[in-house]
């Protein structure tokens, strides 16, 4: 409610000038004043209502979105199937798997906090390579991005890359053998036709490695 509207409410509800002034300064009606004595009860009730309106206006004006700018939000997540499952069934729908041998990614019920039921696992070694990628049509304009993932590696470290128009922009090295949250940021100016790729890789093809990934997200956080 605007100040002008609130003032109109006060003027309408105040039954006499004397009482209006006293409402403003916090005084009380004089004993023996017939007009004030007649309206004292009504003014008291209406004053309470006006106070209620003021409190509502203050609360409404102070309402804010308390969500952190980097807090995960499905509306701005650009990756389809971030958790590698659909309706509780393991899936890499929305991702493209590559290996230099005939194979497929596997899934594990070993998941990070809030990771749902399944994570995806990429294994390499003995000259066998494997990766998983998803391509995203880049929103046009100047934007700040956060790429985040929960991951862990056994053996040689795996990695995650953010690729812009076939050029590697950022790389996350998965060094820990226990679940850990990783996050990188990047700012890009994109035009129509530009693309972003998020690549998950198990690492070197010469040493054995098994990398687990889950909750992989790419978000705009302007």
Apparent shape: globular
Q: State the fourth-level CATH superfamily of the largest domain.
A: Galactose-binding domain-like
SSE-based structural type: alpha+beta
Number of strands: 12
Average per-residue pLDDT, rounded, comes to 77
- Oligomer designation: single chain
User: What is the fold named in CATH at topology level of the largest domain?
Assistant: Jelly Rolls
Explained architecture:
This protein is α+β, with helices and mostly antiparallel strands and 222 residues long. The chain has helices at 3-13, 17-25, 34-62, and strands at residues 85-86, 89-90, 96-99, 106-108, 119-124, 130-137, 141-155, 158-164, 167-174, 180-190, 195-201, 209-220. The protein folds into 2 domains: 3-62; 74-220, Galactose-binding domain-like (Jelly Rolls, Sandwich), CATH 2.60.120.260. The protein is built from 3 helices and 12 strands. The strands form 3 sheets. Strands 3-6-11-8-9 form a 5-stranded antiparallel sheet, with no helix packed on it. A hairpin with a 2-residue loop joins strand 8 and strand 9 (167-174). The protein is globular, with a radius of gyration of 31 Å.
List its traits.
Jelly Rolls; globular; 2 domains; 22% helix; 5-stranded antiparallel beta sheet; 222 residues; alpha+beta; disordered N terminus
